[in-house]
Amino acid sequence: MVRKKYDKSFKIAAVMQIMDEGKKVSHVAKALGILPTMLSRWVYEYQTHGDEAFTGNGKPIANKDLEIRRLQKRLEELERENEILKKFQAFLKEPE
Asked: Which 8-state DSSP code applies to residue 23?
């Protein structure tokens, strides 16, 4: 199934129907043929980030704390891999 992409202007227009016109999320979502949960997420992102919302390609604005946690997790993973490789290298050097 192909994932449908919506441009920034479409998302803002949908959000404005809810915020400015006071329409219900479920009614706007049904009229636009999208899921109410997706529209709710757009509203939240617009309320949180304003004009900086909807940066493109469906990727939300990076949260620094989330990015730090992701990088820390990756660092731990690479450190474990290095330890395994060091042990393997030492194993290969052992005389038979």
From this structure: -
